[in-house]
C-alpha cells in the first residue's frame, strides 16, 4: 500500500471516528491525539516519507497536510457541536420557575402627605418662591392679630385653638408666616414670593373628617404689580399640576379676615366629573383651597405700604388633597402609621 | 339660611332653574350647601277625604277608614293616628307610593284587616320633625278644606318649592334674609326689585308709653325699641305663612311668634314678643345678668346666668337672653291678650359669647353675631305691627318706646378706576364699574376716574376700598378675570441647606428601608418625658381636649413606639419606621414658648425583610439599626469621627445595648434597644431605636466631597485572627491597628467574632482583614510583612492577645 493510500485510509477512518463520537472528551483528547499527536497515525505514516524517492516526497507531503487540515477541521466542528449540545443540556437542566416571587429587598415609603408637600414646594420653587417654615408654638399676635383677627373676632370661632397661655398657642394655620415674612422682607431687593408648609393644630375631637393635628401650605406673593388675575393663574396652575388639567377650576367669593377680596377655589369633582355625587354633595365641585388678595390691614400691621405693595395669599390642606386624590375617607389614617396604609404610597 | 325659590320669584323675574340660580349665587356671593325640592323622591301622595270611620275589631287604637281619593270606589285604609276624624281632608299615600326615606307603601293587612295605603303625618312625607307644628306632631295632617280630592298634596303644603340653602360667611349677615338675598340677586342679574315695607294707618288710642317703660344700662346695645299691641287674638297662622316658615326651617308656633320669625327671615332683623300681662312692673330693662340669676328659655331649658350675660329683665327677673332666646314665663300663649314687641340691636360680640358659652345657637343669635342693620329697625317694627293687626286683629299703639337709638351713617369710600384694574388685572371702564355699584344700589359719584361710593348700612362688611374691589370682582365675575402668572423681578426658589439636608435625610432613610411616619406632637406628659436627650421642662396645653394630647413631645421615639404597637396589635410584626419632626424643649420652668428642635428618629422591630420561600429572616438586633444609622450618617458627610459610646443613662433603654452617638466630640443622639420593661408597657416586641438632634447635625461642619485616587497598583490583604479578653472592644483594637498600621494600610475590616466552642472562657476570637496599598508603586511582600508584624506586636503588647 502506498503512503498515499495509507493516508487516505487514515483520513477515512479518522473522519468516521469523529463522526461517530458523541463524547467531547474523546474528541479533544483520544481521537485528536491518536490522529494528530506526535505518536499519532499521520505522524506514523509520514515517517515513511524519508524512504520515498525525492520527486514523490512533496506530493505525499502536500497530501499529508491536506489530510491533517481536514481532520483538524472535522475535529473542531465536532467539538463545537458537542459543546453546544452540552451547553444546551446544561441550560435546559437549569430551567427555573420565573413566576416565583423575587427576593425581598426592604424599601421604605414616603408619607403621602409629605409627598404632596414636596410636590407643592418643588412646583413653587420652580416659579421662584422660597420655602420657609415657622414656629408651631406661635404667638396670638402672629396667628390672629396680625392676620386681622383681633380678639373677639367671630372668625376666631372657626378655628378652635389650643392655648398654652393667653398669648401663646399652637398655631391654627400657617398664615402667621405671612406676617412674619412680611415684617422681615426687604422689598428693595425684590418681591416676596414664599410658601410655608407645616403642621397646624385645632382644638377638635378627632373623627373621620377632623384631626386635632393636620398640615397646611401657605403661599404669599407681594410686589408692586400683583393682580388677582395672577392669583387665578397661579391657583389654576397649582390645581392642574396636582390633580390633572382635565379639571375645571372655579373661584367663588368667600371670607377670610386676612384677604380682601377672598375666594375659595373648587375643582370639578373627579369622582363624578361634575355630574354630582356623594363626594361633591351633588354640586359637581370640590373645594380645594382658600385664597385672596392680602388685606391692607395685614400689610400695614407688618409695616408694608399697602398703597405701593399688594399681592395674593393662599392656603391649602395637604391632608385634604390626599384624601381627595386617593379617596381616603378617614383623616386619622394619616396619623396612625399603619404600615399597610403607608406602604401603598410611593 | 334656606331661601325659597318661589318666594324669590314673587319679587324678581328670574328665567333660570333653581340649580342654575344656586350656581350663580355660589360664584357671585355666598356658598350654597344644597338645593332641595321637598317633594323630590315622593310618589303618589294625594289629597283624600275620610268618608267614614270604624274601630278596628282587634285593636284599641286602630281605625278602619273609608277614604275618597277621587277614584270610583273609596279606599279602605287602616290608620292608628289619634286625631283621625270623618270629613277631614288628609294626606294619602296610595298603594305603590313612595314616602319619606324612599319607603314604598304597599297593600297590606293590619291585624287581619286589608289596608290600601296610608294616611300620613307631615314627618312621614319628609318634614323634619323640628319644623312640624306642635298641633300636628302626634297625628296625621289635615289639609285645607278646599284641597281637591285626588290631586297631589305637594302644592298645598309648599313641597313643590325649591329651597336653596345658603352657607353665609361671617361677613355677609345681610344674606341671612330674603330682602338681602334679593338685593344681591338684583345686582348679579341686573334686574330691578321692589323691596318695600308695609305700614299701618289706623292705630289705637292707647299709647305704648302709658303701658310700659324701658331702659338700657349697657353700652352693648345700640338700639332698643318696644311697641305695645293690645287685644290680640292668638291662633295658628294662615297656611301660607306656616309654609314660608317651615320651608325656612322654622317651626310655626302661633300667629304672633310666627310673624316675628317671618320678619326675621324676610328682613334679617330678629324680633321678640312678650306677653305684657306676665311682665312684672311692665318694665323692660336691658342689663347684665346678676350672679345666681336663672332663666327658663323658650326651649324649656334652665340656664344659669352670670354677670357677662346680657339680659332683658322685668322688675323681678330676666325675661330674655338678649339677642339669643326669650324666656318661657313671658312667652306668647293662646291666652295672651296684650303683647309687647321688641326690636333691638345687641352687640355682636356679646351675643356670640353668650351663645357659645351656653351652647344656644339660634336663628336670632346667628344674625346678631353677623350684625343687623340698625337703620332698618323701625321699618321692621312697622311691618310686624301691620301684619299683627292684619292676622291677629291687634290694636296697635302708634308710639314706639325707644330706650336707646344710635343710628349709623352710611359709609363713604373713595376708589379709583386705576386701583380697581391694578388689583384685579382687568381693563374695566368707568361705565362698567359705575354700573356695578349702581346695581348694588350704592350711591356713586364719579369724578374723572374716581368713584365716591356711599355704602348703605345694611352692608356692614364694606369699609375700605379693598371691600369695594371685592364687590366689583364678584359682580363682574371671577370667571371673567384674566388668568396670568406674576411678573416682575426674578427671584430664586431653592431649598435652603437645612431644608435640603432634611429632605436628603428622608430620602436616605427611605432608601435604607424605613417608612416615613407622622405621629402626633401632642402626647401624654408621661410619654413626653421619656427618652430625653437633655434636661428640659414640659409644655402643657391650658385647656386640652383629652389626656392623650396634653403635652408637647420632647422625643420622637414614643410616637414611633405607639405606631409599632398599633401595627403589631394588627398582626403586622415587621415594622421599620422613621419620623422627622420637632420636639419642644424648655430650658427652665418659667420659659413660656418652648424651643422647637428638629429631630430625626427611627424604630425597627420584627424582621427587616418578610419571610419568603427563599430566605429565613432573623429578627432585628442592635447592629441592624446601627447599620442603618451608619449609612445615613455617612451620607451626611459629617466632618469628624463618629463614635459610639456605651451608656446606661437612659432609663427607657437597655443598659447594656445602648450607645451615645458623638460626632467629633459633639453629642447628637443615642441608639440602642428599648428597655424590655418599656417595650412591655407599649406592648411591642423587641425594638431598636435611634433619636438624633437633627439641628445639631445641621449645624455641624460638613466635608466637601473629595475625590480619592483609585490606585492602579495592586493591593495586598493580610488576615489576622486573635484571642482577646472579652471586655476588649472592637474600637480599642481598631484604634491600635489604625495607629500602628503604617502608611500603606488603606482598610481594616472585622470579618469574624466568635466565642463558642474551642475558645477559652473569658476570651473571644476576633479576625480582621487588613488591606495595604501603595498608590504610587507596587508594594512588595517585604513592606507588607513588616507593617503587618508591627500591628501584631502592638496588639500583643497592648492587649495580650494570642495570635492564632
From TrEMBL, chain A:
<dbReference type="InterPro" id="IPR006195">
    <property type="entry name" value="aa-tRNA-synth_II"/>
</dbReference>
<feature type="binding site">
    <location>
        <position position="260"/>
    </location>
    <ligand>
        <name>Mg(2+)</name>
    </ligand>
</feature>
<keyword id="KW-0479">Metal-binding</keyword>
<dbReference type="Pfam" id="PF01409">
    <property type="entry name" value="tRNA-synt_2d"/>
</dbReference>
<dbReference type="GO" id="GO:0016740">
    <property type="term" value="F:transferase activity"/>
</dbReference>
<dbReference type="InterPro" id="IPR022911">
    <property type="entry name" value="Phe_tRNA_ligase_alpha1_bac"/>
</dbReference>
<dbReference type="InterPro" id="IPR002319">
    <property type="entry name" value="Phenylalanyl-tRNA_Synthase"/>
</dbReference>
<dbReference type="Pfam" id="PF02912">
    <property type="entry name" value="Phe_tRNA-synt_N"/>
</dbReference>
<keyword id="KW-0547">Nucleotide-binding</keyword>
<dbReference type="InterPro" id="IPR010978">
    <property type="entry name" value="tRNA-bd_arm"/>
</dbReference>
<dbReference type="GO" id="GO:0006432">
    <property type="term" value="P:phenylalanyl-tRNA aminoacylation"/>
</dbReference>
<dbReference type="GO" id="GO:0000287">
    <property type="term" value="F:magnesium ion binding"/>
</dbReference>
<dbReference type="GO" id="GO:0000049">
    <property type="term" value="F:tRNA binding"/>
</dbReference>
<protein>
    <recommendedName>
        <fullName>Phenylalanine--tRNA ligase alpha subunit</fullName>
        <ecNumber>6.1.1.20</ecNumber>
    </recommendedName>
</protein>
<comment type="similarity">
    <text>Belongs to the class-II aminoacyl-tRNA synthetase family. Phe-tRNA synthetase alpha subunit type 1 subfamily.</text>
</comment>
<dbReference type="InterPro" id="IPR004529">
    <property type="entry name" value="Phe-tRNA-synth_IIc_asu"/>
</dbReference>
<dbReference type="GO" id="GO:0005737">
    <property type="term" value="C:cytoplasm"/>
</dbReference>
<keyword id="KW-0648">Protein biosynthesis</keyword>
<keyword id="KW-0963">Cytoplasm</keyword>
<keyword id="KW-0030">Aminoacyl-tRNA synthetase</keyword>
<dbReference type="InterPro" id="IPR045864">
    <property type="entry name" value="aa-tRNA-synth_II/BPL/LPL"/>
</dbReference>
<feature type="domain" description="Aminoacyl-transfer RNA synthetases class-II family profile">
    <location>
        <begin position="122"/>
        <end position="324"/>
    </location>
</feature>
TrEMBL record, chain B:
<dbReference type="Pfam" id="PF01588">
    <property type="entry name" value="tRNA_bind"/>
</dbReference>
<keyword id="KW-0030">Aminoacyl-tRNA synthetase</keyword>
<feature type="domain" description="TRNA-binding">
    <location>
        <begin position="39"/>
        <end position="154"/>
    </location>
</feature>
<dbReference type="GO" id="GO:0000049">
    <property type="term" value="F:tRNA binding"/>
</dbReference>
<keyword id="KW-0460">Magnesium</keyword>
<keyword id="KW-0694">RNA-binding</keyword>
<comment type="similarity">
    <text>Belongs to the phenylalanyl-tRNA synthetase beta subunit family. Type 1 subfamily.</text>
</comment>
<keyword id="KW-0820">tRNA-binding</keyword>
<dbReference type="GO" id="GO:0016740">
    <property type="term" value="F:transferase activity"/>
</dbReference>
<dbReference type="Pfam" id="PF03484">
    <property type="entry name" value="B5"/>
</dbReference>
<feature type="binding site">
    <location>
        <position position="461"/>
    </location>
    <ligand>
        <name>Mg(2+)</name>
    </ligand>
</feature>
<dbReference type="InterPro" id="IPR009061">
    <property type="entry name" value="DNA-bd_dom_put_sf"/>
</dbReference>
<keyword id="KW-0963">Cytoplasm</keyword>
<dbReference type="InterPro" id="IPR036690">
    <property type="entry name" value="Fdx_antiC-bd_sf"/>
</dbReference>
<feature type="binding site">
    <location>
        <position position="470"/>
    </location>
    <ligand>
        <name>Mg(2+)</name>
    </ligand>
</feature>
<feature type="binding site">
    <location>
        <position position="467"/>
    </location>
    <ligand>
        <name>Mg(2+)</name>
    </ligand>
</feature>
<feature type="domain" description="FDX-ACB">
    <location>
        <begin position="711"/>
        <end position="804"/>
    </location>
</feature>
<dbReference type="GO" id="GO:0009328">
    <property type="term" value="C:phenylalanine-tRNA ligase complex"/>
</dbReference>
<dbReference type="InterPro" id="IPR041616">
    <property type="entry name" value="PheRS_beta_core"/>
</dbReference>
<dbReference type="GO" id="GO:0006432">
    <property type="term" value="P:phenylalanyl-tRNA aminoacylation"/>
</dbReference>
<dbReference type="InterPro" id="IPR002547">
    <property type="entry name" value="tRNA-bd_dom"/>
</dbReference>
<dbReference type="Pfam" id="PF03483">
    <property type="entry name" value="B3_4"/>
</dbReference>
Amino acid at each position: 500500500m502506498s503512503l498515499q493510500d495509507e493516508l487516505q485510509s487514515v483520513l477515512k477512518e479518522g473522519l468516521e471516528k469523529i463522526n461517530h463520537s458523541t463524547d467531547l472528551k474523546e474528541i479533544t483528547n483520544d481521537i485528536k491525539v491518536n490522529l494528530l499527536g506526535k505518536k499519532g497515525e499521520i505522524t506514523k505514516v509520514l515517517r515513511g516519507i524519508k524512504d520515498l524517492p525525492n520527486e514523490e516526497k512533496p506530493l505525499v507531503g502536500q497530501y499529508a497536510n491536506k489530510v491533517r487540515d481536514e481532520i483538524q477541521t472535522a475535529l473542531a466542528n465536532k467539538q463545537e457541536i458537542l459543546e453546544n449540545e452540552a451547553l444546551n443540556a446544561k441550560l435546559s437542566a437549569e430551567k427555573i420557575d420565573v413566576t416565583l416571587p423575587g427576593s425581598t429587598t426592604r424599601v421604605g415609603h414616603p408619607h403621602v402627605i409629605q409627598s404632596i408637600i414636596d410636590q407643592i414646594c418643588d412646583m413653587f420653587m420652580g416659579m421662584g418662591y422660597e420655602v420657609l417654615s415657622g414656629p408651631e408654638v406661635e404667638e396670638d399676635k402672629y396667628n390672629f392679630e396680625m392676620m386681622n383677627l383681633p380678639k373677639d373676632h367671630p372668625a376666631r370661632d372657626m378655628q378652635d385653638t389650643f392655648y398654652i397661655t393667653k398669648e401663646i398657642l399652637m398655631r391654627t394655620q400657617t398664615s402667621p408666616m405671612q406676617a412674619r415674612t412680611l415684617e422681615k422682607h426687604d422689598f428693595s431687593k425684590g418681591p416676596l414670593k414664599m410658601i410655608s408648609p407645616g403642621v397646624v393644630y385645632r382644638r377638635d375631637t378627632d373623627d373621620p373628617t377632623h384631626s386635632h393635628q393636620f398640615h397646611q401650605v401657605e403661599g404669599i406673593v407681594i410686589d408692586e404689580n400683583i393682580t388677582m388675575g395672577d392669583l387665578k393663574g397661579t391657583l389654576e396652575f397649582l390645581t392642574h399640576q396636582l390633580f390633572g388639567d382635565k379639571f375645571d377650576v372655579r373661584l367663588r367669593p368667600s371670607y377670610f379676615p386676612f384677604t380682601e377680596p377672598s375666594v375659595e377655589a373648587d375643582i370639578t369633582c373627579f369622582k363624578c366629573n361634575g355630574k354630582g355625587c356623594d363626594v361633591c354633595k351633588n354640586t359637581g365641585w370640590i373645594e380645594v383651597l382658600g385664597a385672596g388678595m392680602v388685606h391692607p390691614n395685614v400689610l400695614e400691621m407688618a409695616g408694608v405700604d399697602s398703597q405701593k405693595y399688594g399681592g395674593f395669599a393662599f392656603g391649602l390642606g395637604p391632608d385634604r388633597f390626599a384624601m381627595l386624590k386617593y379617596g381616603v375617607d378617614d383623616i386619622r389614617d394619616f396619623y396612625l402609621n399603619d404600615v399597610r396604609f403607608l406602604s401603598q404610597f410611593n | 339660611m334656606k331661601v325659597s325659590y318661589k318666594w324669590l320669584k314673587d319679587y324678581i323675574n328670574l328665567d333660570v332653574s333653581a340649580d342654575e340660580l344656586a350656581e350663580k349665587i355660589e360664584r357671585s356671593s355666598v356658598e350654597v350647601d344644597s338645593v332641595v325640592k321637598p317633594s323630590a323622591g315622593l310618589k303618589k301622595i294625594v289629597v283624600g277625604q275620610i268618608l267614614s270611620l270604624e274601630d278596628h275589631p282587634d285593636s284599641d287604637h286602630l281605625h278602619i277608614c273609608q277614604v275618597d281619593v277621587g277614584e270610583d270606589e273609596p279606599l279602605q285604609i287602616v290608620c292608628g293616628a289619634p286625631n283621625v276624624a270623618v270629613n277631614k281632608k288628609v294626606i294619602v299615600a296610595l298603594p305603590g307610593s313612595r314616602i319619606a326615606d324612599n319607603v314604598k307603601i304597599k297593600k297590606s293587612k293590619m291585624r287581619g284587616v286589608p289596608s290600601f295605603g296610608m294616611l300620613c303625618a307631615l314627618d312621614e312625607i319628609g318634614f323634619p320633625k323640628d319644623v312640624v307644628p306642635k298641633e300636628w306632631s302626634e297625628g296625621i295632617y289635615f289639609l285645607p278644606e278646599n284641597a281637591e280630592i285626588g290631586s297631589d298634596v305637594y302644592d298645598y303644603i309648599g313641597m313643590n318649592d325649591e329651597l336653596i340653602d345658603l352657607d353665609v360667611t361671617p361677613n355677609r349677615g345681610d344674606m341671612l334674609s330674603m330682602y338681602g338675598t334679593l338685593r344681591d340677586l338684583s345686582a348679579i342679574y341686573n334686574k330691578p326689585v321692589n323691596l318695600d315695607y308695609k305700614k299701618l294707618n289706623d292705630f289705637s288710642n292707647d299709647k305704648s308709653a302709658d303701658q310700659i317703660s324701658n331702659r338700657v344700662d349697657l353700652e352693648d346695645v345700640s338700639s332698643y325699641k318696644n311697641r305695645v299691641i293690645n287685644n290680640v287674638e292668638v291662633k295658628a297662622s294662615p297656611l301660607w305663612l306656616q309654609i314660608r316658615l317651615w320651608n325656612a326651617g322654622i317651626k310655626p308656633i302661633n300667629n304672633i311668634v310666627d310673624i316675628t320669625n317671618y320678619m326675621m327671615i324676610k328682613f334679617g332683623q330678629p324680633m321678640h314678643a312678650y306677653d305684657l300681662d306676665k311682665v312684672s312692673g311692665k318694665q323692660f330693662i336691658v342689663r347684665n345678668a346678676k350672679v345666681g340669676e336663672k332663666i327658663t328659655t323658650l326651649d324649656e331649658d334652665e340656664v344659669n346666668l352670670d354677670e357677662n350675660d346680657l339680659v332683658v329683665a322685668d322688675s323681678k327677673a330676666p325675661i330674655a337672653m338678649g339677642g339669643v332666646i326669650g324666656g318661657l314665663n313671658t312667652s306668647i300663649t293662646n291666652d295672651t291678650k296684650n303683647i309687647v314687641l321688641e326690636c333691638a340691636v345687641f352687640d355682636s360680640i356679646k351675643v356670640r359669647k353668650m351663645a357659645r358659652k351656653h351652647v344656644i345657637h339660634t336663628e336670632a343669635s346667628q344674625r346678631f353675631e353677623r350684625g343687623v342693620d340698625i337703620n332698618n329697625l323701625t321699618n321692621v317694627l312697622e311691618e310686624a305691627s301691620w301684619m299683627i293687626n292684619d292676622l291677629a286683629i291687634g290694636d296697635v299703639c302708634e308710639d314706639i318706646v325707644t330706650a336707646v337709638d344710635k343710628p349709623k351713617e352710611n359709609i363713604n369710600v373713595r376708589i379709583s378706576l386705576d386701583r380697581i384694574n391694578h388689583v384685579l388685572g382687568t381693563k374695566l371702564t368707568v361705565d362698567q364699574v359705575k354700573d356695578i355699584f349702581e346695581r348694588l344700589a350704592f350711591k356713586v359719584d364719579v369724578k374723572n376716574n374716581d368713584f365716591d361710593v356711599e355704602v348703605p348700612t345694611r352692608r356692614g362688611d364694606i369699609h375700605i376700598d379693598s371691600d369695594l374691589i371685592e364687590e366689583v370682582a364678584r359682580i363682574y365675575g371671577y370667571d371673567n378675570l384674566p388668568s396670568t402668572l406674576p411678573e416682575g423681578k426674578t427671584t430664586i426658589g431653592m431649598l435652603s441647606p437645612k431644608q435640603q439636608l432634611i429632605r436628603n435625610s428622608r430620602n436616605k432613610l427611605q432608601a435604607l428601608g424605613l417608612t416615613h411616619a407622622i405621629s402626633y406632637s401632642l402626647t401624654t406628659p408621661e410619654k413626653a418625658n421619656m427618652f430625653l436627650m437633655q434636661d428640659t421642662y414640659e409644655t402643657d396645653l391650658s385647656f386640652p381636649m383629652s389626656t392623650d394630647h396634653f403635652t408637647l413631645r420632647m422625643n420622637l421615639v414614643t410616637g414611633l413606639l405607639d405606631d409599632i404597637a398599633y401595627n403589631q396589635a394588627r398582626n403586622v410584626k415587621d415594622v421599620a419606621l422613621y419620623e422627622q419632626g420637632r420636639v419642644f424643649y424648655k430650658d427652665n420652668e418659667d420659659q413660656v414658648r418652648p424651643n422647637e428642635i428638629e429631630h430625626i428618629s427611627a424604630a425597627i422591630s420584627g424582621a427587616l425583610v418578610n419571610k419568603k420561600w427563599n430566605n429565613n429572616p432573623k429578627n432585628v438586633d442592635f447592629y441592624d439599626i446601627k447599620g442603618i444609622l451608619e449609612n445615613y450618617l455617612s451620607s451626611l458627610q459629617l466632618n469628624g469621627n463618629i463614635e459610639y459610646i456605651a451608656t446606661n443613662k437612659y432609663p427607657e433603654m437597655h443598659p447594656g445595648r445602648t450607645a451615645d452617638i458623638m460626632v467629633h466630640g459633639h453629642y447628637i443622639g443615642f441608639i440602642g434597644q428599648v428597655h424590655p420593661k418599656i417595650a412591655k408597657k407599649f406592648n411591642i416586641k423587641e425594638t431598636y431605636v435611634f433619636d438624633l438632634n437633627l439641628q445639631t447635625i445641621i449645624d455641624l461642619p460638613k466635608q466637601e466631597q473629595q475625590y480619592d485616587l483609585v490606585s492602579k497598583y495592586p493591593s495586598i490583604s493580610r488576615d489576622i485572627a486573635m484571642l482577646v479578653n472579652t471586655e476588649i472592644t472592637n474600637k480599642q483594637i481598631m484604634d491600635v491597628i489604625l495607629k500602628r498600621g503604617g502608611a500603606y494600610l488603606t482598610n481594616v475590616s472585622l470579618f469574624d467574632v466568635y466565642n463558642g466552642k474551642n475558645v477559652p472562657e473569658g476570651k473571644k476570637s476576633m479576625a480582621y482583614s487588613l488591606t495595604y496599598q501603595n498608590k504610587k508603586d507596587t508594594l512588595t511582600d517585604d513592606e507588607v510583612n513588616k507593617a503587618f508584624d508591627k500591628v501584631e506586636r502592638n496588639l500583643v503588647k497592648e492587649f495580650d492577645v494570642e495570635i492564632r
